[in-house]
Amino acid sequence: MRIELQNFTKRFGDTTVIEDMSLSVASGEMIALLGPSGCGKSTTLFAISGIHRIDGGTLHFGDRDVTRLPPQDRPVGVVFQNYALYPHMSVAENIGFPLRVQKLKPAEIKSRVGEMAELVQIGNLLKRKPQQLSGGQQQRVALARALVRKPDVLLLDEPLANLDAKLRLEMRSEIRRLQRETGITAILVTHDQIEAMSMCDRIALMKDGRIEQISTPAEMYERPASRYVAGFLGNPPISFVNADANGRLAFGDNALPLPSGIAAQGPVVIGLRPEHFGPQHQGPCVSGQVSFIEPQGREDLIDVTLPDGQRLRAIVPAGHDVALGQTVNWQVDLSRIHLFDAEGARL
Amino acid sequence: MNRQTLLGLGFLSPALLAVVMFFLLPVVLTVVFAFTNMSTSTGILGGEYQISESDLRRLPAAGVREEAVEMLAGADYAVRADTLALFAAEFGDKRAQELEALHGGASFDDRRAMERALKDLRRDPIRSVRERKAAAELFRISILGQRFPTEAAFVEAITALGIPEADQAALTEAAYTGWTFTTQNFELLWELPATWRYALNSALYVVLTLAFNVGFGLFLALSTFYLPTRTAQTFRAIWFLPRILPPVLYVLMWQWLTWDQGFISAILRPFGIEPINWMRHTATHAWTFIVLINGCVGASLGMILFSSSLRAIPETQLFAAQVDGANRWQQVRFVLLPQMRWPILFITSYQTLSLLTSFEYILLATDGGPGRQTEVWALAAYHTALSNYGGNLEYGLGAAYALALVIIGILLSALYLRFFNFRDLVAKPRIEQ
After folding, report:
1. Phi and psi of B36, rounded to 5°?
2. Strand partners, A269
3. Is B325–A82 a contact, with Cβ atoms under 8 angstroms apart?
4. Contact A77/A147 with Cβ under 8 angstroms?
5. Contacts of residue B326 in chain A, CB cutoff 8 Å?
6. Would A231 be classed as within a structural domain?
7. PANTHER family in the record, alphabetically (chain A) (predicted)?
8. Is there a domain that residue A303 lies in?
9. Which of A71, B240, B254, B268 could be stapled to A50 by a disulfide with Cβ–Cβ 3.0 to 4.6 Å?
10. Domain coordinates of chain B in residue numbers?
11. C-alpha distances out from residue A184 to A72, A177, B286, Å
């Protein structure tokens, strides 16, 4: 089911949280709403689910206008950050609740709950209470409850935030598997770029109630539309260097040639990812002093402080003989650098 | 006992003292009083020995044989050796000899007859009426109306009357005017039809008021739960007013609302409805207003407790219920109410206990009226022991009423403690996920 959100505006009292935002999600697609806390991603999700009213704009599921529909009448399933399971109901009753309020026959509820429990692999836990389940099991129950109504849209609000690291990895692929198997259109709200990149077909990166960029994870990583997007994606994060563009990019005693096809003049910001800087690359050199080494096993993170005080970070395969305080002259993969103007827009 | 224990006891002592003074002592005294026939007429200290004219009728029931009663009743005045000796000492031997000659061995039923007999003296008549009266008194042998400070004096007196030994013990007991230990209070409670009426009234009062309290408290909590915070707070504050208002003032406002020239009557008059006292017109009127008066006080407690337990339920559960397709009623029925089981049970049990013993609002509103239709058990205890219209305050009977309440209260408390498993309840909140 295609989701079409147009000119969406949301206000809480006098504060406008989201103004004039548009988003369209293709049928069967899984999209991530990514951004720091307070950027309006959960608000957008709650507006799509109908829990929050939409103050301006329209929302269509397929051809159907659902802007004014109460949440009860929208074909959505929601998984909440704290799972919001009903503590007084057993797992089976939790999953069957959406069917129970539709007044379906107990036999049918039972068979559909069983079906759903098999799908999320908790068939043996149906009699337990939520308190008796682990975080991952609770999450599966929440997923089953969201899907049992056979909704057209699955909304996930930070579903992995309350899990430990190992479970998070497991549930990441589990949620993606479920989404693929059911072919449901899904929206994932997260502040974790890895979750967004690994689980979703496309990412909508949000900032202050706006969508900064919307594209596939690879595209967003390779061609960030702004300095903000470039800074948000990537771990370890991208390094930024202020430079002066005047036929070439000069910063301190260092200079890089201007990449082909880019005409820039005056102050610019160079974005250089750690994996595109180091002794193992081909290209023009930048020199500086090693100021920090963080061993990671397979590779080391090395900070290089440039003569003008700015800092670049490099990922260097383990087995190098770089020492702290050493002066290095390392290559930059020129084709992979990003250039932004003073306002942060991509050049 | 080390210093810490002593210090602990020291800090506890005010509380212990309060518990002993205001709980244990009253309970013990209630038990003691319940087994006495203490009342205004017996006083609370010891008594004297006295048989009065009116006591004669109840003596056979107390185990005194008819002959003995006749002995007490008849032969008030007798001319015989001992009384004549007294007469001779005051009025001279000659008169005594003449009287003996005229009426020796005679006895008279009342004083006037005795005086007439004295008029028969010819040789040296007693002319003054007053003197004749005083003389008549000397022949008096009855002990009716006479007070004897000790048991020994009383026994001596009835022995002198010739009461057989077999009747003396029963008579002495019947003559005692102070209080005694007895179980007759409980027999009386069991036998009096009014007792059952009060018990039924109490049950009716507790059930109706409790239903109103819990139901209305829940309604207020749930309805304010869905209101915006500010509005909800104002609303709750208004509903809390009856609880913080002094009861007398609060009930006075209800009286003003309901009496025959009050608010309701005034409002309804233009519609051609005759003004009546809405609170006391019939038993149904009275019960309605008693439930309302108590309910509006009690509902606020439920409202506060229910509201806070509602707010302890995570908001996302309601969001989840909405997207699961549950309408308002289904949210309340399936998600909210089941999680409020404990507060509802707590309010129910707590208020059952407090309603059983509370009577102040009924006292102020209808005072048990009309008739005795709204007289509940606790109010009956109060009326019997402390505010009797007849003036004879029956402390013993009142205590017996109260003792029944104490026993029911302790039994219910024990039951609730067991049922709620309070240790568990304190250790782990049931509402949390």
Report:
1. -125, 165
2. A242, A340
3. no
4. yes
5. 72, 97, 101
6. no
7. MALTODEXTRIN IMPORT ATP-BINDING PROTEIN MSMX, OSMOPROTECTIVE COMPOUNDS UPTAKE ATP-BINDING PROTEIN GGTA
8. yes
9. A71
10. 1-25, 75-138, 192-427
11. 19, 11, 64
Render each residue's pLDDT in chain A as its tens digit; 347 residues. 889 998 999 988 888 888 889 999 999 999 999 998 888 888 999 999 999 989 988 999 988 998 889 999 999 999 998 889 999 999 999 999 999 999 999 999 999 999 889 888 888 989 999 999 888 889 889 989 998 988 999 999 988 888 888 888 888 888 899 899 889 999 999 999 888 999 999 999 998 888 999 999 999 999 999 999 999 888 889 999 998 888 888 888 888 888 877 777 888 999 999 999 988 888 888 889 999 999 988 899 999 999 888 899 999 998 888 888 889 999 998 888 899 988 888 88
Instruction: Please list, in sequence order, all residues whose beta carbon lies within 8 angstroms of the beta carbon of residue A12, skipping any fewer than 6 positions away.
Output: none
Q: Give me the residue from A49, A82, A89 closest to B323, CB to CB.
A: A49
Q: The CATH number of B192-427 is which of 1.10.3720.10, 3.40.50.261, 3.40.50.12230, 3.40.50.1480?
A: 1.10.3720.10
Q: Does residue A194 share a domain with residue A108?
A: yes
- Does the reported pTM lie above 0.95? no
Token duo for residue B7: 């210090």
Pairing of strands A56-61, A3-12: antiparallel
Residue A266 token pair: 């005056």
Give contacts of A77 with chain B, Cβ < 8 Å.
Answer: 323
Instruction: Count Cα atoms within 13 angstroms, Cβ side, for B78.
Output: 14
Around Cβ B136, how many Cβ atoms within 10 Å?
A: 22
**Dihedral angle at the C-alpha atoms of B375, B381, B384, B389, nearest 10 degrees?**
-40
Instruction: Report the b/e string of B65-95 with b at 16+ CB within 10 A.
Output: beebbebbeeebbbbeeebbeebbeebeeeb
Which residues span the domain enclosing A185? 3-226
Quick check: helix, strand or coil at residue A310?
Answer: coil
DSSP assignment, residue B206?
A: H
Tokens of B357: 């013993």
CB-based contact B297:B242 (threshold 8 Å)? yes
CB A74 within 8 A of CB A61: yes
Tell me how close the Cα of A76 comes to any Cα of chain B, in angstroms: 7
φ, ψ for residue B248 (rounded to 5)?
-60, -45
Do B316 and A145 lie within an 8 Å CB cutoff? no
Q: Please say whether the beta carbons of B60 and B69 come within 8 A.
A: yes
A318 part of a folded domain: yes
Interface contact A132, partner B, CB < 8 A: no
CA-nearest residue to A150 within chain B is: B324
CB–CB contacts below 8 A, A to B: 71
> Does any CB of chain A come closer than 8 Å to the CB of residue B23?
no
